[in-house]
Amino acid sequence: MTGFGAYRHPLKVRGKNYGQVHIELRSVNSRFLDVSFRMPDEVRFAEHAIREAIGKKINRGKVEIKIFIQKEPDVSSQDSAAKTNEHKLNTQLIEALKKSEALVLKEFPHSNPLSVKDVLHWPGVMIQEELDQEALFEVIMLALDEVLKLFMQSRAVEGNSLKNVIGTKVDQMDAMISSIEPLLPKIIQTYQQKLTEKLLAVLNGLDQQGRSFNREDLADRIRQEVVLYGVRIDVEEEIARLKTHFAAVRNTLDKGGPVGKKLDFLMQELQRESNTLGSKSVHQETSNASMELKLLVEQIREQVQNLE
């Protein structure tokens, strides 16, 4: 299922306002749980705990979590704001970069020199105040808890919509089966009668050709075989199983929770019974019903892939 949640939580370090921890959580459809991270190095220590927290709430989906720290000045006083905005430079590293650049340019005079941007973005040049991991971890988990709540709310909205779509299609299938069920005895009886008449007509043709056989015994045997064939083409069991599966789908939807895998299994069973109904069909009504059922089952299966 798709979903989205975003939340900001203030972060304080040693009583000073350091900034805000921003967390975004989004997902797209997937049969399995796949979590990917986009976050700065100072947050990597919390990856395992974050993954566990997500796994407790989400079972399926390709999930992306984005974490970044938006630094802000401490608005409690102008002095502290000025101190917060100050950036300390690693002068020893800058001097080492300068010497290294001179050596490289000596060997490769046509190379481009380092720009101020290159130097400032060089790892370790900007000396930043170290974050308290314990305080940062607490803020991250608090923000993650709020994000997961918002994320699950967005999923619930989509889940209710999909529930209505699937429920409507199940109702269509149920109504279709209910419409052809009263016709089945007459369909079988009519087919048996037509088949008997055709076989008896063949016997009459053989009789006119002068072949010797006990006509009455063969006629009785034909009627017995036709009755047995009528039993084989009877689809009452398939109809009963289809109705049972319809009820199971409705109960699963009403129960809620992670239902994707169970509904996927029920769709396989519905497809199997629809195929059997078509293979046993001896009338246009049941053939059309089988085709419509398979189409609706496939449409539901596509929606089920979006459910957790």
Layout of secondary structure:
Blueprint: E1 3-13, E2 16-28, E3 33-38, H1 47-57, E4 61-71, H2 78-85, E5 88-89, H3 91-107, H4 116-120, E6 126-127, H5 133-180, H6 184-208, H7 215-232, H8 236-255, H9 260-279, H10 284-304
Describe the structure in your own words.
The protein is an alpha+beta fold. 63% of the residues lie in helices and 15% in strands. The chain has helices spanning 47-57, 78-85, 91-107, 116-120, 133-180, 184-208, 215-232, 236-255, 260-279, 284-304, and strands at 3-13, 16-28, 33-38, 61-71, 88-89, 126-127. Helix 1 runs parallel beside helix 5, helix 5 packs antiparallel against helix 10 and helix 8 runs antiparallel to helix 9 (260-279). The termini are close together.
- Largest beta sheet, briefly? 4 strands, mixed
Which runs of at least 5 residues are low in confidence (pLDDT < 50)?
A: 74-86
Helicity, as a percent range: 55-70%
When the domains are counted, the total is 3
Estimated structural class: alpha+beta
Gyration radius, to the nearest Å? Answer: 36 Å
What order do the SSEs take from the amino end to the carboxyl end, as H and E? EEEHEHEHHEHHHHHH
Number of strands: 6
Overall outline: elongated
CA(first)-CA(last) distance: 6 Å
Mean pLDDT: 79
Strand content: 5-15%
Order of strands, main sheet, comes to 1-2-4-3
Q: What's the tally of helices?
A: 10
Protein name: TIGR00255 family protein
Organism: Polynucleobacter kasalickyi
InterPro entries: YicC-like_C, YicC-like_N, YicC/YloC-like
Cofactor: a divalent metal cation
